[in-house]
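[SOLVED] Need 3D model of a two-part complex

Original post:
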Amino acid sequence: MSIKQPLVTMKGRKDGLVLVMDDTCAYEALLHELKEKLSVNQQLYKEGPVTSVKVQVGNRYISESQRSELMAIIRSFDHLKVDDIWSNVLTREEFETEKSKEKIVSVARIIRSGQVLSVEGDLLLIGDVNPGGVVSATGNIFVLGALRGIASAGTPGNEQNSVIAASIMKPTQLKIGRIISRTAEEPANEMKNDHVLECAYVDLSVGKIVIDRLQAVLKKSHLSLLLKMP
Amino acid sequence: MGEAIVITSGKGGVGKTTTSANIGTVLALQGKKVCLVDTDIGLRNLDVVMGLENRIIYDLVDVTCGRCKLSQALVKDKRFDCLNLLPAAQTTDKNSVAPDEMKKIVDELKADFDYVIIDCPAGIERGFQNAVAGADHAIVVTTPEISSVRDADRVIGLLEQEKKITPPRLVINRIRQHMIKNGGMLDIDEIMNILAIDLLGIVLDDDDVISFSNKGEPIALDPSSKAAQAYRNIGRRILGETVPLMVIEEKSGFFHRFKSLLGMR
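Solution:
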């Protein structure tokens, strides 16, 4: 029989340790070996600053409690912190929720006063949102038309990932995650002819919603929308 | 088989009843058999505006309760034989009629008349549902005020959910040209931008409309008035004619473009 492969392989990288775990053995055996490996090699990381650890569990599904168990074991050693636990496997449920966050729902109609349109994922609305109408999406909102009503994008705590864009940006209220803004109390100048596509996003440095030309927003690299570009 | 048209607005006081009375009158002027139906139970006005209050014997609620036949409740207009009014009851409220009862009555009227014009009460509750129940088409009345446009938008949204009603058309009422000129009032382009439905007609604000109403005469009968002209145009458009919009001012604008579109300038 060939040499037995270790269940846990430790690799040193510039940015910390990587623990590669066998995905065919029993979970208990894995825990056992992990503890052993970490205590045996303590001298490797005991000196010096805190080392970050990335765990790769391969094709093994790690439940939430197992995940915290792994983290607790690693943390119990001094000078180690867990950066990430990476698994190739998702439950179907997790996948579906992730997928619904990714999809773009396109709707072609006018959202009139008193009507509410809310979707999971991104919303592409072809038409207007009239005053008194509400659109909401867990992702981004793109309006090909005039946004004169209320738009609510993103989810609480995830403010920096969502934007609201509209061909004509005249909203009564904008909401991205937990942050709300309303337009300045200026007389409505509906007949402005020099339309540019405007985009609202959360500027984390001020913690407020900012409206800018889309071209200017494109330079903000932190926005997830722009990271998806090929 | 005739058509039933509901005249609605959401907001009160924008001129639904006046518009109903005048559209009914101009259609009758064109020789059509018309029945006006007042669904504003408890706050009826259409009979007063038409000057027919003293001729009412039975009303809408009497019909639904079976106290009389539908034909007995119809009031014949004093000017046109082909124009009739089904008055609302004044002594009860909107909950005394259900939408399907209303639909039955309108369907029955459609068999006898070319046009059934349904005057809708303000609001979007039971009275609105009653008025809309039997309608095939809808006309939304608005004025160039932000509150009235907002309510019209809401009502258009509700009408669009009614599958059997054709897309609503818009009448902009009480236009004051000097106020539009100095920017104190929304102009027609702005309203059309927001509401985005077909424009059936525009009616200028005219003091005579009020004095005629008080006399119990529809303004449409006075051909010298600009409002009457507007209602006649609306009537012709309902009958399917293509009539250009009235010019409210000589300046370039919506009307100029509209007219040049029709090759009139």
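Edit: Chain B is about 40% helix and 15% strand.
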